[in-house]
Amino acid sequence: MKVLVTGGAGYIGSHTVLCLLQSNHQVIVYDNLCNSSEESLTRVQKLTGKQLEFVEGDIRDTTKLDAVFDNHKIDAVIHFSALKAVGESAQIPLSYYQNNVHGSVCLLEVMQKHQVQNFIFSSSATVYGEENDIPYVETMKLGTPSSAYGASKVMVERIMADQALANNKFRGVSLRYFNPIGAHPSGIIGEDPKGIPNNLLPFVAQVAVGKRDKLSIFGDDYDTEDGSCERDYLHVMDLAEGHVAALDWLNANSDFTGVEAFNLGTGKGISVFKIVAAFEKAVHKTIPYHVSPRRSGDLSAFWANAQKASSQLNWQAKRSLNDMMEDTWRWQSNNPNGYDV
Ligand code: NAD
Ligand code: WQD
């Protein structure tokens, strides 16, 4: 298939592009590089020995986007592009709604104009909000996420549902990611956060490489086994393969129209203390840390019910926690400054 990948130069996008090329799909990446570097795509092409086309552009620039659809017969769109920092979304909510919600509408409009119906969206476990019990199941009513970032994901899921009601050819898949970590096992591509990392694993890895002094563990007084928060961490390569599985599913179900959501997670929660211990064991380094107050907006624990992806997409997260730690470290230690070489 010819697949347009928005946000394909970013962390999850670049790993997915690699898997798409390896599965013999043709790829056009459309990215404004606001949180990424074209170097990730250069490396993906070297790793796979295959070519992709890159267009630098913003999804809200519908003239440029339209030209891409004019120049290519696109079969499917995988839509990664978004702003994704939960804390920042409280400071500049309008930028988040503008980029994530308005940007998605622009993309769907151009798709509609060109009669492209296959749409795979990067959603998030955050759409379940605080209201739902764990583990999260796709049949649950969506919650009210505390952040503007989370709300933007709920809104795009709603927009997809409305679009499917209005257009009986629309074929949408919403992939609700849990906590992706790790890197390609080569250590050649990985996650390259700008500034101080917000997420746990990038921060741990930067402590290990000597870029940060110590980790703050946000709270040890939660109602969990060891008092720290529990999350469903999955390997980014498993997540990337989940997108190829979703494309295969769309192809195999040619009668399908509407929107279908799938959780992509392992189905298991792991605590922050356990993550730190697993990293130390895998890479033989000590991570200095201290316990600091809870981070506002953090839920104590959540993980996926991953049955639906297993039974319908034939997808399961198969890499181990040790793989996630070793691969994170290979990437971080070989590229202490990320893609800035
Ligand atoms: P990322 O920031 O590495 O990738 C996003 C990419 O989109 C970047 O390359 C950025 O330059 C691009 N982009 C942003 N706004 C754009 C615009 N207006 N036009 C064109 N390109 C634009 O983030 P990621 O971690 O790879 O996340 C990918 C997607 O997955 C996002 O939608 C994110 O919300 C979602 N998601 C991420 C996580 C996670 O923990 N990383 C979890 C759940 C969902
Ligand atoms: C994991 C755990 C922190 C950093 C976020 C978004 C979510 C999704 C994934 C996009 C938490 C603790 C963290 C640190 C810590 N993104 N932590 N010290 O918050 O589960 O999810 O990213 O959709 O929507 O909310 O991930 O990696 O930030 O935190 O103790 O320096 O690590 O409290 O328990 P989170 P995270």
Automatic annotation (TrEMBL):
GO terms for biological process: galactose metabolic process. Pfam families: GDP_Man_Dehyd. It catalyses: UDP-alpha-D-glucose = UDP-alpha-D-galactose. GO terms for molecular function: UDP-glucose 4-epimerase activity. CDD domains: UDP_G4E_1_SDR_e (cd05247). InterPro entries: NAD(P)-bd_dom, NAD(P)-bd_dom_sf, UDP_G4E. SUPFAM superfamilies: NAD(P)-binding Rossmann-fold domains (SSF51735). This is UDP-glucose 4-epimerase.
